[in-house]
Design brief:
The complex is a heterodimer of chains A (1090) and B (569). Chain A has 13 helices and 56 strands. With 1090 residues, chain A is mainly beta. In chain A, the strands form 14 sheets. Chain A has a 22-stranded antiparallel β-barrel. A 5-stranded mixed β-sheet of chain A has the order 10-15-16-13-14. In chain A, a hairpin with a 7-residue loop joins strand 42 and strand 43. Chain A is globular and about 105 Å long. By secondary structure, chain B is mainly α. Chain B has 25 helices and 9 strands. Chain B has a two-stranded antiparallel sheet. Chain B is globular, with a radius of gyration of 27 Å. The chains are: A mainly beta (1090), B mainly alpha (569). At the A-B interface, helix 2, strand 25, strand 28, strand 32 and strand 33 of A face helix 1, helix 2, strand 1, helix 4 and helix 7 of B. Strand 32 of chain A pairs antiparallel with strand 1 of chain B.
Chain lengths: 1090, 569
């Protein structure tokens, strides 16, 4: 196996050359043939220098095109450009990211110097598209462009969080408020039950860990949303592509920029738990009712212990966050550089948690000669995430359950406890076996360290005029080290260990990508073409290793100091490969009629030989209507473009080797013989699905961009229809097939027993709106923008019309909350409908006897000769045998006929047949509002974001109100039903919960999860340049920021913005199991440039 | 022209770099052994068989969870951590199809069947040059045995046959090969009759191939005797008494089995795989192997052992202890309603008031003796009960730890935490070992778990003889078991009275099976098979026609459209 890997090491490089050049040669010959028969128009060479209108600095990389064509060039590092113009009367368009475009008539001049002013208008921008740039006006695909300035106001640790509310059709929720925790992103709905994270492409290189880097390095972000735009990234692009371009140096004296802030994070909206007095009242009431003896500690209400711990108070407190960015950039004629460093340090509001990160970046470009340019980007990131949960157990990630469960009579501290001085409960006197959660956080150190190097280098070669060859080789090396240290502890006579334990693990992830692209641009009169062809190969290899040790001599904390006979280790490895060939053809006529075609052929090692390759075409067309003569007289309309697109993309997002028929050996031991000997077992590892093939996502898109009043008002709207077929999903097999694992297998390794099967179809459709208004009145300029998107997803079909039960209600139980079923949204909530609370025994008796009567009637109907009498049906109940007043009553909506098929006739009993759709976890509407204003030296910005029409399954309430549990409860339980307190929705307090009030999935837990949140408000002041000049700085700005200041919601849980998909796929969204909440943050910062 | 030159320059590079596309994308799984390689050696084939045993011994099945089901639903054990919802449901007959243990056992049983099928298919196809016919037979024979074994457990749990049922009732899905597609996995339940036929066929295939005895290296694997014994007990399950007798005759004729002298030595890891053992699960403690993830030690002890040894998360119920003591004689006679003649009215009233309550047998005995004329009453009772005279059955000491018993390191066991019972499970627990590691997370106990002892064969044989009218012979076999139990006992005769009727022998067996096999997961099967569960369990909520079987787990119903649920679930 090892030898085999080495043999293929060089293959990526070889592969892309081979895959590239075969089509390329054909292509080149074709083009040159065209040239031979073409005409040679009279040419004029125009050259000049492009500068920044404000600073006078030269601007490299400015896109210069002959108006109405795609013929153009870019300025070099000096801001100089040379362009051959076929017609002395044509106009040149100068455009650059972040600057206003400028159109200049040539008028037969050979030198045209241009000064560009910084942008206040959007439509003329140049946008980064896959493997190139394009003028926004020439775009036919759907791309949302986000400028650095829009996101850098956010004081967040990762870029993904900053994208929230910034682009239409892009749904972002932060996973939790835990330091360093990222966000979940959905681009245009949920194309699959599977993981639908978009891919990140950073400076042209795909990166699996996209969001974890310094935001200050970002020049621009583009989100490719439709098939036509994303197609060029092929594999995995089906769920959207996020292109990040980092900053690069410009010619001139080295420039230093500093941005630093300090902030204070405060936890908000913590759950109210019972104090000792209330706790004793509820517990005693439950026990008295059940005729059971009281818990000794709290048996005597007149003599309760003085301890009354509020665990949330112990565990959460305000904490600081700090950020410092420093960058130096500059350049000469032949090269430029950008070097930056960032230090981010956030202390968790939860005790003993925090996140620190250091990022170092060095980007540079070198011009070797007239036709050859090379460059590189390199970023080193190291982060240290201290969490309170085991990072290798993502299921429990950031879950607050343990804090809710902990009883108030347990003290937080106990000086007599020799292991750390923490308090504990007594299993006999308290009848409680749980740990002290505060101690658990303090005594369990979970440090997740990540070291990452992202590097890429490119070479750009102008082979002949108009024909560019560009190759990029990039690598991503990532080492994750999880250090778990558990101190000796004593949390009661059943929960103790006087020996410390260490568990260390390493995961090394190594990705290599290489691509080569050939681009040809040509104009024939009003016809302009750009043709691009390329090939790419990617390989990923990872290795995982862990080791565990216990009982360390002399209090040391390294594995070597542990006892020899108490060591343990394990590990595994994986790899996958992708090979692609792609091409793009753009055609435009007179800048009015635009057409783009993409084609891609992808091969993935995840599929078997029969279905390894997929071919995915896409097309789009655009019409710049405002250039038509019939609109020329309408002065109000400055811009109008209509676009139409259709395309297909493939996805291979399944674990590797699922089609391989293999045997596993890991832990399958048995003992035989005398003397006893350990023998090894081996068994089929999983069901091999050799038929797995590419998941296909077809997308149709229609939209328009409208600019009014000289583009002061811009409006964009798109409609899309996205259809996923042959969806790949890890499907649980019937346990009777024998491939289901439980206690054994899968714990330490990445073994998944569920095969991925091409199972069905999903439809997403939606509408996106974005509006921007910019204006300047004297010293006052402002921009107001908003975006609003609607999406609905529906499962069209599953294999065998099957239903998938998913979404665990709690971390402990097996009740499933969600369902995936044809005709419904993905993972909709499925359960009973509440009909309030039973108020009297009479009500219950009537239902029970009616249930018995109906059951008897059904028996008579099926079997007229039955010897049974109504008495034989005495054990038929409406709900459960033990149901009593104060319990939830559910609605009887259906029953089963003689063949056990569900029929919509109530049968007088609550059975599985009475479950129905009770909620939709996906938001119908998402929206964001941005306002920014400048007045003289002051600037102000406001950003708010919200979702509307989303149901949350608040299963955190299960913990707070589960009276059958052994722990503490939330204060809402004080409002529990009693014969004297009947107007409530909290059921009676019982010890055994015979009606399963707590565990039953019902509308009780469904809440409206809509919200609007003021995410960020910033007020800044920039020193006038005169004052700044005296201080020898070019810019000095101070700012105040408030984050998550206010939330408007009816949701009763901790935070309506908890993750929609904590798990790796979309099968259990919207279930709030109680997560580390988002903080309210105030911060003050300073920006200095010199 | 320059262009063409440039292109020509590229041509040699292109030729040089032409690699193999297929190689790049063709990769194999570095963590597992490929199917094509696996079935090429006897060693691998043996490890495939080991994997079946391995998962039978797991905590998800006979290593622990099956005991949580069988010993708690029968009422032999009670008291567990109140949040152990699965067990509480068994004890109170409120099992739902979401019950976790129900699911764990179901999926483990089918996993073992899948592994058995894999062995049967592939080993049979192995080339003769790779493996001898003898080795082939032994491996395939074990796989047949283990498949039949799992099918029998399934039938007993989910397709139970009892006096009110007939063989056309729903049995179990019969799966005889590894599914090749998802569609093939949507299996249906066969009838009880068909299931029975399949199980018997598997045991017969196993019997043909398995050796009567294994060499020392392989001791503990399934033998011919095990295949015969399990076929016999399958016949018993379907009331095929003649066939059961024939099978047991065949078993005894092997001449390999005999009862060992000391009853208690069967259970505590001291005399493993002894002459009484027909089939036994093997455990040993190879340190660092976690029993919860496939390791070789046993987890039952960790969970059930009293608190100085383990988690103490079970108690032997007072109901159970009653059956080993004087109070049983009286309360049982009352419960049976068969022999209240001569019972003083006030004693009758007193006992009636105790029904379903937990009173320690010591207390009960003392109360009875001090308040009522017990001696006269017992003297007038039906002969089968008469010998008892208020003593504890000697097997009690091997069945339960009693408060004050000495455990490892001379610690005295005291009542603790969940188990406020005076009694704690003792079978399959080595009292010389701490099951609880210092940390309390990893437990390791080495005691084997005998699943089929000769004593059980004798009692079933006796039952079959009695059912077919051979009452004298039946009593002889019950007495064989009793003789060993009362070895060294010098009081009254331990023998059953002679001349008992068929009904009296049946009643005697109800008691004898319980005492001999308490805590060995037999009680519940007997109660269901005899149709008497309501007599013992209705006070806990047992309902006839429903609770004899478990619900098919919800996960199976959700995922398999062809699966049918049992009635009333």
């Amino acid at each position: 196996m090892k030898i085999y890997l080495q043999k293929t090491f060089l293959n990526p490089v070889r592969e892309w050359f081979k895959a590239l050049f075969v089509p390329m040669v054909v292509f080149l010959i074709g083009l040159n043939a065209g040239n031979l028969y073409g005409f040679e128009p009279a040419e004029l060479t125009v050259s000049g220098t492009i500068t920044d209108a404000r600073s006078g600095a030269s601007l490299p990389g400015v896109y210069v095109v002959i108006k109405g064509t795609t013929v153009g060039t870019t300025s070099d590092v000096d801001g100089k450009y040379v362009l051959k113009v076929s017609n002395g009367n044509s106009e040149l368009v100068f455009s650059f990211v972040g600057y206003q475009s400028k159109t200049v008539a040539v008028n037969n001049r050979s030198t045209i110097d241009v000064a560009l002013t910084e942008d206040v208008r959007g439509i003329e921008d140049v946008v980064v598209v896959g493997y190139g740039v394009q003028k926004k006006s020439d775009l036919t695909g759907v791309i949302s462009s986000i400028k650095a300035a829009d996101i850098q106001k956010m004081a967040v640790s990762s870029v993904d969080q900053a994208l929230q509310g910034k682009a239409s059709g892009v749904y972002v929720t932060r996973k939790s408020g835990a330091p360093g925790d990222g966000a979940k992103i959905f681009v245009r709905g949920q194309g699959s039950i599977n993981n639908t994270d978009p891919i990140w492409v950073i400076d042209g290189v795909k990166s699996s860990s996209g969001a974890n880097f310094n935001m200050n390095n970002i020049e621009s972000i583009e989100i490719l949303k439709d098939a036509s735009a994303a197609a060029i990234y092929g594999v995995e692009a089906a769920n959207g592509v996020i292109l990040v371009t980092t900053k690069r140096g410009t010619k001139g004296e080295p420039k230093v920029a500093v941005n630093a802030y300090y902030g204070q994070n405060s936890p908000v909206n913590m759950p109210d738990m019972l104090n000792t007095q209330e706790f004793a009242k509820i517990k005693n009431q439950a026990r008295d009712d059940a005729g059971k003896s009281r818990i000794p500690r709290i048996a005597d209400m007149d003599n309760l212990p003085s301890t009354s711990t509020d665990w949330f108070d112990e565990i959460f407190s305000p904490a600081p966050s700090k950020n410092i960015d420093l960058s130096v950039s500059g350049g000469t004629d032949k090269m430029n550089f950008y070097v930056s460093g960032n230090y981010y340090d956030e202390t968790g509001t939860m005790v003993n948690t925090g996140y620190k990160r250091i990022t170092l970046t060095a980007n540079s470009d070198f011009i070797i000669n007239k036709s050859l340019k090379i460059g590189e980007s390199m970023t080193f990131t190291t982060s240290d995430n201290k969490s309170f949960y085991n990072p290798e157990d993502p299921y429990k990630k950031n879950n607050l359950l343990d804090f809710v469960r902990a009883i108030p009579t347990m003290p937080a501290y106990d000086a007599t406890n020799e292991y750390g001085g923490f308090g504990y409960a007594d299993p006999v006197v308290d009848e409680y076996q749980g740990e002290n959660p505060f101690a658990a956080i303090m005594q369990n150190e979970f440090n997740s360290k990540n070291h990452e190097i992202k590097a890429n280098a490119y070479l750009d070669w102008e082979i002949v005029k108009d024909l560019h060859f560009r190759t990029t080789v990039g690598g991503n090396f990532n080492l994750t080290k999880n250090d778990l240290y558990r101190a000796p502890y004593f949390y009661g006579t059943h929960l103790f260990d006087p020996a410390a334990e260490i568990r260390n693990s390493f995961r090394e992830n190594y990705e290599l990508l290489a691509n080569a692209v050939l681009t040809y641009t040509k104009s024939f009169g009003e016809h302009n073409i750009t043709a691009m062809a390329g090939a790419e190969s990617q390989k990923t290899d990872w290795t995982y290793f862990w080791a565990r040790g216990k009982d360390f001599a002399g209090g040391l904390t390294v594995l070597d100091a542990g006892k020899q006979d108490n060591r343990d280790n394990g590990g595994n490895e994986g790899l996958d490969r992708v090979l692609s060939q792609f091409g793009r053809f753009n055609y435009s006529y007179a800048g009015k009629y635009l057409f783009t075609a993409n084609i891609r052929r992808d091969g993935s090692s995840k599929f078997g030989a029969l279905s390894r390759w997929g071919v995915f075409p896409s097309f789009s067309a655009g019409w710049n209507v405002h250039k038509e003569s019939f609109l020329a007289s309408v002065d109000q309309i400055s811009y109008l473009k209509v676009t139409l697109g259709y395309g297909k993309l493939g996805s291979d997002r399944i674990p590797s080797f699922l089609g391989n028929e293999v045997y596993m050996t890991s832990p399958l031991y048995y003992v035989v013989g005398n003397p006893e000997t350990l023998v090894e077992g081996a068994a089929i590892a999983r069901f091999p699905n050799k038929q797995a093939k590419w998941e296909e996502i077809a997308q149709f898109d229609a939209g328009f961009n409208l600019g009014l009043f000289d583009n002061k008002l811009e409006f964009t709207s798109n409609y899309y229809l996205k259809k996923t077929s042959d969806m790949l999903i890890a499907v649980s097999l019937p346990p009777s097939a024998g491939f289901t694992y439980g206690y054994d297998g899968g714990d330490e390794s990445d073994l998944s027993s569920d095969p991925s099967i091409n199972i069905g179809e999903i439809k997403n459709q939606g509408i996106e709106f974005a509006v921007t208004h910019r204006n300047k009145i004297g010293d006052f300029s402002y921009t107001v923008s908003g975006n609003l998107s609607y999406n609905e997803n529906q499962v069209i079909q599953l294999n065998e019309n099957q239903v998938i039960a998913s979404g665990d209600m709690t971390l402990l139980g097996s009740s499933k909350v969600s369902r995936i079923e044809a005709g419904y949204p993905i993972a909709y909530y499925y359960g009973y409908q509440d009909e309030g609370i039973f108020q009297s025994q009479d009500e219950l008796n009537a239902l029970n006897s009616a249930a018995a009567q109906k059951a008897y009637d059904a028996e008579l109907a099926n079997n007229p000769n039955t010897t049974k009498t109504i008495k034989d049906f005495a054990s038929v109940y409406y709900q459960y045998k033990g149901t009593a007043p104060g319990d939830y009553r559910w609605k009887d909506i259906a029953g089963r006929d003689a063949n056990k098929e569900i029929v919509n006739t109530p049968d007088g009993r609550i059975t599985d047949a009475d479950k129905a759709m009770i909620g939709n976890p996906w938001p119908k509407w998402i929206y964001g509002v941005n306002v920014s204003m400048n007045w003289k030296d002051f600037d102000f910005s406001f950003f708010g974001q919200g979702v509307q029409g989303r149901d949350v399954y608040n299963s955190f309430r299960y913990y707070l109100e589960n009276v059958a549990g052994d722990g503490n409860y939330g204060t809402s339980i004080l409002n529990a039903w009693t014969p004297d307190n009947t107007n409530t929705n909290v059921p009676r307090v019982t010890l055994s919960d015979p009606n399963k009030n707590a565990a039953t999935v019902s509308t009780r837990y469904i809440e409206d999860g809509s919200y609007f949140r003021i995410k960020n408000i910033q007020l800044g002041y920039t020193l006038p340049s005169k004052v700044a000049g005296k201080m020898n700085v070019s810019k000095f700005r101070v700012y105040l920021t408030g984050q998550n200041l206010l939330t408007f919601t009816n949701y009763s849980g901790i935070d309506p913005e908890f993750s929609v998909g904590e798990e790796k796929d979309n099968t259990s969204v919207g279930i709030d199991r109680g997560y580390y909440p988002q903080n309210k943050t105030y911060l003050v910062g300073v920006q200095i440039e010199f | 022209m320059k262009t063409i030159k440039n292109i020509l320059l590229l041509t040699p590079i292109l030729l040089f770099l032409s690699g193999c596309e297929k190689d790049f994308l063709e990769i194999s799984d570095p963590n597992n052994i490929d199917n094509a390689v696996f079935w090429t050696s006897e060693k691998n084939a043996t490890s495939a068989v080991n994997a079946i045993y391995s998962s039978i011994k797991e905590p998800g099945f006979l290593g622990l969870d099956y005991h949580k089901y069988a010993s708690f639903i029968s009422g032999e054990y009670d008291r567990c951590y109140p949040s152990d919802q699965s067990r509480v449901e068994f004890m109170t007959f409120t099992v739902k199809s979401e019950n976790k243990i129900d699911w764990l056992i179901w999926k483990d049983l089918f996993r073992d069947i899948m592994r058995s099928n894999d062995v049967i298919t592939h080993v049979s196809e192995m080339n003769d040059e790779l493996i001898s016919q003898e080795a082939k037979d032994q491996l395939v024979g074990q796989a047949y045995f283990l498949r039949g074994f799992c099918e029998l457990y399934l039938l007993q749990m989910y397709g139970a046959y009892y006096p009110e049922k007939d063989t056309s009732a729903l049995g179990i899905p019969l799966i005889t090969r590894v599914a090749q597609s998802r569609e093939e996995m949507f299996c249906k339940r066969a009838s009880v009759g068909e299931s029975y036929k399949q199980i018997i066929a598997d045991f017969e295939e196993a019997e043909k191939r398995l050796p009567s005895k294994w060499d020392n290296t392989n001791l503990g694997r399934a033998t011919k005797g095990a295949a015969i014994a399990y076929a016999a007990t399958t016949h018993m399950w379907l009331n095929q008494f003649d066939k059961a007798i024939a099978s047991y005759d065949k078993l005894f004729a092997l001449g390999l089995y005999s009862l060992i002298d000391d009853f208690s030595v069967n259970f505590h890891g001291k005399n493993e795989n002894n002459s009484e053992s027909i089939f036994e699960l093997q455990y040993a403690d190879f340190s660092s192997l976690n029993p919860w993830v496939g390791g070789s030690a046993q987890s039952l002890a960790l969970e059930f052992a009293p608190s100085q040894l383990g988690r103490g998360n079970a108690g032997v119920s007072y109901e159970t202890s009653d059956y080993f003591a004087l109070s049983y004689t009286i309360t049982q006679a009352y419960l049976d309603n068969s022999d209240t003649k001569g019972m003083p009215n006030d004693m009758y009233a007193y006992i009636s008031s105790l029904k379903g309550k937990t009173v320690s047998p010591e207390e009960l005995k003392n109360n009875l003796i001090s308040q009522f004329d017990v001696t006269t009453y017992v003297a007038n009772m039906t002969p089968i009960y008469k010998w008892i005279e208020g003593t504890w059955d000697p097997r009690w000491k091997a069945t339960a730890f009693i408060q004050g018993d000495t455990l490892v390191s001379n610690e005295k066991w005291t009542i603790y935490s969940y188990s406020t019972s005076f009694y704690s499970p003792k079978k399959f627990i080595d009292s010389d070992r701490h099951a609880l590691n210092t940390g309390g997370t990893l437990g390791a106990n080495e005691s084997n778990i005998p699943l089929f002892r000769l004593a059980y064969a004798y009692l079933q044989y006796a039952e079959a003889l009695n059912e077919t009218g051979k009452t004298t012979e039946a009593v002889d076999y019950i007495n064989k078991v009793r003789e060993r139990a009362y070895k060294g006992y010098t009081g009254q005769s331990w023998k059953l009275a002679s001349g008992l009727s068929k009904e009296q022998i049946k009643a005697a067996l109800e008691l004898e099976n319980f005492r001999e096999l308490c805590g060995e997961c037999v009680r519940w099967k007997d109660l269901v098979r005899w149709g008497v569960a309501d007599k013992y369990c209705s006070y806990r909520g047992f309902e006839k026609g429903t609770h004899e079987v478990l619900p098919i787990p919800k996960a199976e119903l959700d995922l398999n459209p062809n699966m049918e649920q049992n009635e009333n679930y």
